[in-house]
Write a structure and sequence with these properties.
The complex is a heterodimer.
Chain A: H1 4-10, H2 13-20, E1 33-39, E2 44-53, E3 56-65, H3 68-81, H4 86-100, H5 107-113, H6 129-144
Antiparallel strand pairs in A: 1-2, 2-3
Helix pairs in contact in A: 2-3, 3-6, 4-6
Chain B: H1 4-9, H2 12-15, E1 20-21, H3 32-45, H4 55-74, E2 83-86, H5 89-104, E3 110-114, H6 119-132, E4 135-139, H7 149-155, E5 160-166, H8 178-187, E6 191-195, H9 207-210, E7 214-218, E8 229-233, H10 235-240, E9 251-254, E10 259-261, H11 275-291, H12 293-312, E11 317-319, E12 331-336, H13 341-350, E13 353-354, E14 356-358, H14 363-369, E15 374-378, H15 385-402
Parallel strand pairs in B: 1-13, 3-4, 3-5, 5-6, 6-7
Antiparallel strand pairs in B: 2-8, 7-8, 9-10, 11-12, 12-15, 14-15
Helix pairs in contact in B: 3-11, 4-11, 5-6, 12-15, 13-15
The structure holds pyridoxal-5'-phosphate and zinc ion.
Chain lengths: 146, 408
């Protein structure tokens, strides 16, 4: 059973807005890297496109479909990461994954997550953790090679 | 005759909790009598069946084979040894694929399955197709979510060697006309596998009357324990099939380089079996008989009718089921337009309503229908109108949360 609060904390305006009306759900001209990620269970499916110049994510966007959590998590992740260097992005990915794995975060770490901190309560909904992590795992794979 | 409210009293997990369990299609709950039979077995009778000459083992063997007899009676098999215990329906289907199909199909043969089959049929049949070169063909639907009768006649031909069909779809709830498919397939010289996993807890099945060649199902979807499955096969077919798994109990004589196999059913039951589970299945069959199929059908028809009527009142819901109530089981798939089923299920969970969401191990069917996934409600004799009212109320809450964001 999921606690009422967790649900209310997840299906918030921020998350719903990003899942239904994401400014980052679009095609990106000439991405420098692109990776597909999916959850066979849920049918969540995203393709993440990044434009990296001088070690910096100068633009990012995605296309895909799936549940509100996977889609909004992707959108908010992109919002958080645009303008960050590769090293900063890698650090933020680690912080996000730590948050989902219920590790305690410092206020400074939380600040780095920006709006992505909205997914904190997903750790209380184990059935949906994969949805929230899809874009982050995909990004992690992309950045590993950088 | 027991009512669903009285039946619910037999299921402690439902009696002691305040949730609406609407996922019997995935696995059913267990009445006290089944749990008691398993407990009784382990506290009074447990020994390795077949392996001891002391009375405890002899008794365990007898209980184990009594349960086999109950299964044979339930589906009206002529001989008890036509009933093989496996781990689940999936293993039963693999047994048929490896032991029967790989040895009897060749390049010019054809395998015909329906598009509504579970992955547990489709994936082993793909393996058979790849290894033997036999062609795998699908029977598709008409526009009322039923198997198209023309498709059946087109796809099953003189080249068809095996047909696999489920009696009831685990996604659409469609009841297939198994009898006419078997008759037609036999006319064409094919053998027929019937997957009754989704119907045996709801509707009787008679292997003798239908003349099915193979039948598979799982204990855990019919009030019995997990870890036990059934394979029925006609004696003359099973006798010609080589063993699937090798080891203890399935042998007669073992020499250094060679082995002779035990007769049926032991030939197909290698190694120590789940005797406690099998005995639990026997008790589940007693329970089904106690309630009676006619009462089960009556209760479930009434619940399904009520659920469909309530769901149809929700303008934001799309149903995926046949319009012919006579050809529809108690499984109902639907979507809230514009909302992903996993989001629906998560919010329903908050309201203590447990449904399944996803592709239900039937990806080819969903792809054929052009949908990613559905919400699925599956009803059983212990469900109540109150469960359905809870569902409807919770679906309205989901719509409230999502409505200003839905783009359809
Ligand atoms: C129609 C059908 N066939 C086969 C199966 C497989 O059953 P099991 O997972 O118990 O092997 C299922 C259930 O999951 C089913 O619904
Ligand atoms: Zn998802």
């Amino acid at each position: 059973m999921t606690n009422t609060n967790d649900i209310d904390n997840i299906y918030t305006d921020l998350i719903m807005e990003h899942s239904s009306n994401s400014p980052y759900m679009r095609n990106l001209d000439l991405p420098t890297c692109s990776l597909h990620g999916h959850n066979p269970n849920c049918g969540d499916d995203i393709t993440l496109n990044l434009k990296i110049e001088n070690n910096k994510i100068v633009d990012a966007a995605f296309v895909g479909h799936g549940c509100a959590i996977s889609q909004s998590s992707t959108s908010i992740m992109i919002e958080t990461l645009i303008g960050k260097t590769i090293d900063e992005a890698k650090e933020i990915v680690d912080i996000f994954i730590n948050m989902i794995e219920r590790k305690k975060l410092t206020p400074a770490q939380k600040k780095k997550l920006g709006n992505s901190v909205a997914f904190e309560n997903i750790s209380n909904m184990p059935a949906r953790v994969k949805c929230a992590l899809l874009s982050w795992r995909t990004l992690q794979n992309m950045l590993e090679e950088k | 005759m027991k009512t669903n409210l009285q039946i619910k009293e037999d299921f402690e997990i439902l009696k002691n909790n305040n949730f609406a369990y609407l996922d019997t299609g995935a696995t059913s709950q267990h009445p006290k009598s089944v749990l008691k039979a398993v407990h009784n077995y382990y506290t009074k009778y447990n020994a390795n069946p077949y392996r001891g000459s002391y009375s405890l083992s002899v008794n365990a063997t007898e209980l184990y084979n009594n349960a086999r007899h109950k299964v044979a009676q339930l589906i009206n098999a002529k001989y008890d040894e036509e009933i093989i215990f496996t781990k689940n329906a999936t293993e039963s289907l693999n047994l048929i694929a490896y032991s029967y199909c790989l040895n009897n199909l060749t390049k010019n043969d054809e395998i015909v399955v329906s598009i509504m089959e579970h992955h547990s049929t489709i994936v082993p049949m793909q393996m058979v197709s790849k290894k033997t070169g036999a062609k795998l063909k699908y029977i598709y639907l008409n526009n009322d979510f039923q198997l198209d009768p023309n498709e059946i006649k087109q796809k099953i031909t003189k080249n068809t060697k095996i047909v696999a069909i489920s009696s009831a779809s685990n996604v659409l709830g469609t009841l297939n006309d198994v009898q006419s498919i078997i008759s037609y397939a036999h006319k064409m010289g094919a053998k027929v596998i019937v997957d009754i996993s989704q119907s045996i807890a709801h509707i009787p099945f008679d292997v003798t009357k239908t003349d099915a060649d193979f039948v598979v199902f799982s204990s855990h979807k019919m009030f019995g324990p997990m870890g036990v499955g059934v394979l029925y096969g006609k004696k003359e077919i099973l006798e010609c099939m080589p063993p699937f798994l090798m080891g203890g109990d399935m042998i007669e004589y073992v020499y250094e380089q060679d082995t002779t196999y035990a007769p049926l059913p032991n030939k197909f039951e290698a190694g120590t079996q789940n005797a406690g589970g099998v005995i639990g299945l026997g008790a589940a069959i007693d329970y089904i008989n106690e309630i009676g199929y006619s009462n089960i059908i009556k209760i479930e028809k009434e619940l399904t009718k009520y659920a469909l009527a309530q769901l149809k009142k929700l303008k934001f819901v799309t149903l995926y089921c046949t319009s012919d109530a006579e050809k529809h089981s108690s499984v109902i798939s639907f979507n809230i337009n514009g909302v992903h089923p996993h989001d629906v299920a998560s919010i329903l969970d908050k309201h203590n309503v447990y449904i399944r969401s996803g592709n239900h191990c039937a990806q080819p069917l969903l792809r054929y229908l052009g949908i990613d996934s559905t919400c699925r409600v599956s009803l059983s004799i212990y469900n109540t109108k109150e469960d359905i009212d809870k569902l409807i109320l919770a679906l309205k809450k989901v719509y409230e949360i999502f409505k200003k964001y839905i783009k359809v």
